[in-house]
Amino acid sequence: MAQQDACTLLDQDHKEAEQMFQSYRSERDDSRKLALTERLCNALRVHIQIENEIFYPAFQQATRDNKLVDESRHEHDEALSMIDTLERAGRPDDATMQKLEAAIKDHVEDERTKMFPEARASQSMDLVGLAQQLQARKSELMAGHPA
Ligand SMILES: [Fe+2]
Ligand SMILES: [Fe+2]
């Protein structure tokens, strides 16, 4: 496999999440909605955790863009609280899912248009090495959450 950079790897997760939100919107069956909710929440938790643990600290150290990192971490916390609500509901919760989708859409847009371009422009980030670290941590976390 070609060496990929960390931003490409993270954006792959974003695209998978977008697809799951879309599937949820077109799903009418409650048990399939619940299964999708579980998959989506697990995937987002893992994604947020690897960004918080690995990508954001590396980005912050390289760019000193504390403001962007603080805002992004705050958005992660807001998403996590909606994910908690969805996981506790025990039934499909369309209203919270809709709010989460909108929040994630805005957040991903900021990563794509602000954070990733800044990361790629910075000379001091090893984006290929970070991609390997992100992938390894992701595999480890997913092992605890079989899809
Ligand atoms: Fe992300
Ligand atoms: Fe994020």
From TrEMBL:
InterPro entries: Hemerythrin-like
Domain Hemerythrin-like: residue ranges: 9-118
PANTHER family recorded: HHE DOMAIN PROTEIN (AFU_ORTHOLOGUE AFUA_4G00730)
Protein name: Hemerythrin domain-containing protein
UniProt organism field: Ramlibacter aquaticus
